[in-house]
Design brief:
three-stranded antiparallel beta sheet; flat; disordered C terminus
Length: about 180
C-alpha cells in the first residue's frame, strides 16, 4: 500500500506505507500480524513474566509478574516489531482496556467496571426509528445485560446509570 490516496473531510492524503486506513481488511491484517508476532516472538521470550496477555486488534492487556526492569525491556521489545508508536500505561493495579476498568485489589481479587472514554457520544439507537418492538426490547435488554456483566460491584452499575442520559425525554417509550 504505497500509492493509496484517501480523502479526509475536504483534503486528500497519500498513504506511503501500511494497510489502507478504514478498510475492512485493515483489522484482519493487524490481527494476523500481531497474532503471529505474539505467538512466535513475544510469548516464547516473555512467557515467564506474563501471567496473561490479551489483545483486540492493536489494544493489548496483560498481567505482568516480572520485575519493572524486565517490563521496560518488554516494552522496548514490542515497539521494535513495527513502526507503530505504542502508548503504554506502565505497571499499575488498575487500567482501562477497551470498555472496562480492570483492577486488582490488595487481597488479589479482580474487579471490573464499565469504562467510557470522555469522547464517548453515547450514540444508542433511538426507539423512535422504524424498529419492531422486539428489536427495541433486545437493544435495551442487551445493553443492560452488558453493563450488568461488566460491573463486579452493583454500586458501579448504579453510578453508571446516574451518569448517563440514554434518550431525550421525547424519545422514551414504555416497554411492558
Amino acid at each position: 500500500m504505497t500509492h493509496n490516496v484517501f480523502q479526509f473531510d475536504n483534503t486528500f492524503w497519500l498513504q506511503t506505507c501500511g494497510n489502507s486506513i478504514g478498510t475492512s481488511c485493515a483489522c484482519a491484517c493487524a490481527t494476523l500480524y500481531w497474532g503471529y508476532i505474539e505467538r512466535k516472538l513475544i510469548i516464547p521470550k516473555w512467557k515467564n513474566n506474563l501471567l496473561l496477555l490479551r489483545r483486540f486488534i492493536d489494544d493489548k492487556f496483560g498481567i505482568w509478574v516480572g520485575t519493572p526492569k524486565d517490563f521496560n525491556n518488554f516494552i522496548i521489545d514490542i515497539k521494535s516489531y513495527s513502526q507503530l508508536q505504542w502508548v503504554t500505561t506502565g505497571l499499575s493495579k488498575s487500567t482501562n482496556f477497551l470498555d472496562l476498568t480492570i483492577s486488582i485489589n490488595a487481597n488479589g481479587t479482580v474487579n471490573t467496571k464499565t469504562y467510557q472514554k470522555p469522547a464517548n457520544l453515547h450514540l444508542y439507537i433511538p426507539p423512535t426509528l422504524a424498529h419492531t418492538l422486539g428489536i427495541v426490547k433486545s437493544i435495551v435488554y442487551g445493553n443492560l445485560r452488558h453493563y450488568w456483566l461488566q460491573n463486579t460491584n452493583v454500586i458501579d452499575l448504579k453510578l453508571l446509570r446516574n451518569s448517563q442520559t440514554f434518550y431525550q425525554q421525547e424519545d422514551m417509550i414504555e416497554i411492558s
